[in-house]
Automatic annotation (TrEMBL):
Matches recorded under InterPro entries: CB, DNA_brk_join_enz, Integrase-like_cat_sf, Integrase_catalytic, Integrase_recombinase_N, Phage_int_M, Tyrosine_recombinase_XerCD
Transmembrane segments: none
Membrane among keywords: no
UniProt-recorded name of the protein: Tyrosine recombinase XerC
Limits of the Tyr recombinase domain: 161-345
Record gene name: xerC_4
Organism: Acidipropionibacterium jensenii
Family membership: Belongs to the 'phage' integrase family.
Organismal lineage: Bacteria, Bacillati, Actinomycetota, Actinomycetes, Propionibacteriales
GO molecular function: DNA binding
GO annotation (BP), single: DNA recombination
Length: 367
């Protein structure tokens, strides 16, 4: 039920008050200088209720800061590292600009202007924008916004970064330069583990007979220390390692308890990425002629070596722990270009075989 009333103020000004009731019989009012504007507002509110997109205007008055807190609380599934990263983005970037702004006052145009004003790396700007989009998306789910105004915002384009893949020879040079940590290089370069997954390996996770590593935990360095959790993707997997690592793996497990770390740091705890780089990894990379190499690039190298060895995309997906083969193809599309050449060569060979003239022996009749 809706109605429009003409009101004359003490000053003599005429206004038109539009009123309608929501489904819970709560009245909503708004004044307009023209009757036609009041009627349009009534029509819009009525249409929104009929189509199911109507939201009580009072619910849009909450601030972005309050919604950010609700969004963070609604994600107990996040890892500690993800939680700290998002909380930091809210504190440093979201709150100063949007914290006191009412949800209903956030517009796509204002977000675009804000995003376009950043001079940070494109990937960083994407992360900041994604956090704001997540907050506003939560408001949509909670029926405090009809649509997410962060959708459709354009972001600066990141220049594609060419990945570095080490050859087998380069891996061996790096392993030799790493000295007693050479087996760490081999495991990362041939098994494709993320650093956190590798650092979390325990003696009980290795099957020496089958040459298998069970990956079902990950450990990450956070502000409060080391946080343990599930691997990225929240799924466990089993990875094979090559036979030349048999001796190193036996040495790593000798005299240890099942719950002991397979590759502990110098102080017995998980081997930290930053500590490893500072104490031996970066120096080994420089000595091996691959200065600037990061441990994560050995994961890319593992994918490259697997492709070179003839592994299909499903096998590589399982090794790397990707959610789908499509993701593996997307991330490492450059590695599969050679497959196109092989397919073309095989098709050419098939065609050549089919086009080759067939010689038939003809018998000679004797009278």
């Amino acid at each position: 039920m809706a109605s429009i009333y003409k009101r004359t103020l003490k000053s003599g000004t005429v206004t038109w008050q539009a009123r309608y009731f929501d489904r819970e019989r709560h009245a909503h009012y708004q004044n307009f200088p023209r009757k036609i504007d009041a009627q349009r507002w009534i029509d819009q509110q009525t249409a929104d209720q009929v189509t199911g997109v109507w939201i009580d205007p009072k619910r849009t008055r909450g601030t972005v800061a309050a919604e950010a807190a609700a969004w963070i609380d609604a994600h107990p599934d996040w890892s500690q590292k993800t939680r700290e990263r998002n909380e930091n983005i809210v504190k440093v970037h979201i709150a100063p600009r949007w914290g006191s702004v009412a949800l209903g006052d956030v517009t796509t145009e204002a977000i675009q202007e804000w995003i376009s004003g950043y001079e940070l790396a494109p990937a960083t700007v994407h992360k900041i924008g994604n956090v704001l989009s997540g907050i506003l998306g939560h408001a949509v789910i909670a029926n405090r916004l009809v649509v997410n105004p962060a959708k459709g915002v354009s972001y600066p384009r990141a220049e594609p970064r060419r990945r570095r893949y080490l050859s087998v020879g380069q891996v061996e040079d790096l392993a030799r330069a790493a000295g007693p940590w050479g087996d760490v290089i081999h495991v990362l370069a041939y098994c494709g583990l993320r650093w956190g997954e590798f650092a979390a390996l325990k003696v009980e996770d290795i099957d020496l007979g089958r040459r298998r590593l069970r990956v079902d935990e990950s450990v990450t360095n956070v502000s409060m220390g080391m946080a343990w959790g599930l691997p990225k993707g929240r799924t466990s997997r089993t990875v094979a390692y090559p036979s030349f690592l048999d001796r190193a793996m036996r040495d790593r497990t000798a005299g240890k308890k099942p719950e002991d770390l397979l590759f502990p740091g110098e102080r017995g705890g998980p081997l930290r990425n930053a500590s490893a780089r500072g104490s031996w990894f970066d120096a080994a990379a420089k000595a091996a002629g691959v200065e600037g190499l990061t441990p994560h690039e050995l994961r890319h190298t593992a994918a490259s070596l697997a492709v070179a060895a003839g592994a299909d995309v499903k096998v590589i997906q399982g090794m790397l722990g990707h959610k789908s083969a499509a993701m593996t193809l997307d991330v490492y599309s450059d590695l599969f270009d050679a497959d196109l050449d092989q397919v073309a060569d095989r098709m050419e060979a098939m065609r050549a075989a089919a086009m080759r003239p067939t010689r038939r022996r003809r018998g000679i009749r004797r009278s």
